Amino acid sequence: MAADIGVYGLGTMGSALALNLAEKGFEVAVSNREADWIGPFLNEAEGLTGAVRGYEDLMDFINAIKAPRTILFMIPSGAPMDAMIKEVTPLLSDGDTIIDGGNADFNDTRARTKRLEGTGVHFVGMGVSGGAEGARHGPSMMVGGSDHAWAQFRPMAEAIAARFEGDPCVAHVGPDGAGHFVKTVHNGIEYADMQMIAEVYGIQRDMAGMAPADIGAMFGRWADGPLASYLVEISHSVLQAVDAETGKPVIDVILDSAGQKGTGRWTVIEALKLGQSASAIEAAVGARGWSSQKEVRVAAQDVLESGASAPATPSEDDLASAMLAGRILAHAQGFAVLSTASEAFEWSLGMARIAEIWRAGCIIRSALLDEFADAFRGELPFGQMILASAMAARLESTVPGLRRVVASATLAGQPVPALSAALSWHDSMSRARGTADMIQGLRDYFGNHGFKRVDRDGDHHGSWG
Ligand code: 6PG
């Protein structure tokens, strides 16, 4: 019997998705560039509802799939994906669909979609979130590409997706690169959320002198209320864990240098290209960069005098408020990037639906996402999430705590780049009169760039003398 879907690439994510599909009763054909990965995978798949068959030869793999075919590629993005498309497209027929489920740059996805136009083969860029565990038992998926491809893949996608109160966390968010773009912004928000968690951890560690397990307990206390989220939950676990080798808290044996694969950076780059600023996300990307300059920081500690004072350590309530306000503001920036991109690329992204498919399965899933979805379904001046009345009320009650946290941390010389970026954005947006009159004056003075006047229309210049 022909398979419902082909999965090519049996790394962690590919094999987890293939097992998930088989468990939901779909017949799955699998293949992998290194043929010796196929046997062990088939052993793992034994006993699942849907039959899984492995193929070493690409043509045999393709022939084993029901037409019109859906083939999910879970391989490294970039050049390997281009090489794969080149190899596989001549073997496919009209109406077949290639899905790239990796973390690809949406610009590449758009270029690939364009390249395949007219061949009859559909190309889908799909963001998959939730790590290996999510892929195996229920990821959140952000699907781009054509309606035809979505109609083909939809029953399978909805069957394997995570569910929030029965609603599958997958949607066809828009055409061509929309799926990968939404996933990129998801990751940008993930960076900001993690950075804010790390900043709160840093305050408790360095200002309050708390032990990791006690800081972990605090995150544990937050895991039930409005701050409930996957990342807060696992912060509790990470801080409680003990290193088997040394008996020390694991966190104390981890080097403070974080890696990055690029999606956070892409969010910032695309935001800037679109004339937006996702400053909390940018701060998080930047902080990862500084984290990897370990040697510079070690040297600078002895050279740079902080002039710090010793303010009172922020209360746990204020830290919780700071985290909540920061989370709302970082999401609002991410959604603003999405809506600008939606206009620029004519995607018609549905913000409420995007918030909904992030409510379960993905890394940034949190109690707030349901509230964000409601905000986008309701009255929303200028499409700005922070102006929804429920969000404005949440900010009104939490920003004072965020302000006290940023102020004390700053006085203490404790870095809070993401929290302070979020606060500055909030403060900039909540002032009807900003300070760009000064920028315009300077631009006109040195470059004759002109400015608008507050009292009449048209372009004007200053009488600078
Ligand atoms: C997810 C994650 C996943 C991956 C990130 C990590 O949604 O499941 O975002 O895609 O963990 O790519 O990115 P960095 O390595 O850049 O932190």
Description:
By secondary structure, the protein is of the alpha/beta class. It has 3 domains: 5-176, NAD(P)-binding Rossmann-like Domain (Rossmann fold, 3-Layer(aba) Sandwich), CATH 3.40.50; 183-429, N-(1-d-carboxylethyl)-l-norvaline Dehydrogenase, domain 2; 437-465, Single alpha-helices involved in coiled-coils or other helix-helix interfaces, CATH 1.20.5.320. Helices cover 54% and strands 8% of the residues. The protein contains 19 helices and 10 strands. Helix 1 packs parallel to helix 6, helix 8 (178-207) runs antiparallel to helix 14 (316-345) and helix 11 (263-273) packs across helix 12. It is globular. The N and C termini lie far apart (85 Å). Bound molecules: 6-phosphogluconic acid (6PG).
Summarize the amount of helix as a percent range: 40-55%
Choose one word for the global shape: globular
Structural class: alpha/beta
Q: List the bound ligands.
A: 6-phosphogluconic acid
Indicate the CATH architecture of the largest domain. Orthogonal Bundle
Beta percentage is: 5-15%
